[in-house]
Amino acid sequence: MRTLKLILVCAVIYSCGGPRTVYDYDEQANFNSYSSIAVYPEIRTGLSELDERRLLSSVESFLASKNLAATGDPDLYLNVYTEQYQEPSRTNVGLGIGGTGRNVGVGVSGGIPLGGPETFLRLTFDLIDVENDALVWQAVVDSKFDFDWRPEEREQHFAKIVEEAMVGYPPKR
Length: 173
Prior knowledge:
This protein has 173 residues and is an alpha/beta fold.
């Protein structure tokens, strides 16, 4: 019984909304040969200027920890773009009316959503080989985002998104 409760608690925690990430990469690329990176010169993230700075600052500090130096003559370009979308709230209150009598049953039920729709950001991180002008690695992260967050909360959230996105770089073959 105790094990069942533990499994149930773990399932609930796992299903709660953290960033969801998908990776893809070019199997022919030699990721050991890349040692420097720069932000794509014509980057258009789709974020506000302040959020774009927060995001790029998180990216640069994370890449520095991966020994990818930011230089003027890079091996890779980083391009980031975003897409905003909304999903209906998954929190509902259920109501039901029912009745039975003489082996006949009738029921009516419905759910009333609590709160408004939830806003999500889909951030796509592209790493482009400068020499070949080819996409070699990509991560797509879907994450809940609240535009009413304070600046510190936004900065922490972008750092979490970047860490989640870049944990798959370099790919393990």
